[in-house]
Amino acid sequence: MSDRELLKAELKKLSAKALQAKMDLHDLSEELPINWTSIMAVAQKAHDAYAELERKNHDLKALENS
Questions:
Q1: Are the C-beta atoms of 40 and 24 separated by less than 8 Å?
Q2: Residue numbers of the domain that contains 59
Q3: From which residue to which does any coiled coil extend (predicted)?
Q4: Per-residue pLDDT averaged across 48-53, rounded?
């Protein structure tokens, strides 16, 4: 498998992870004020997932442009 294909496969997994983090944040927001103390942890998880996804998308674009 090429580097490009490996990166695309990793992006697919990261995208699913980010989507799940987004849904967890959405679910938490609908349940408020229940579990309000977990807002920061759930938000950090979503932030980290999307930051990692953005980094890998950038890596793929750089790879495709080289």
A1: no
A2: 3-65
A3: 4-66
A4: 98
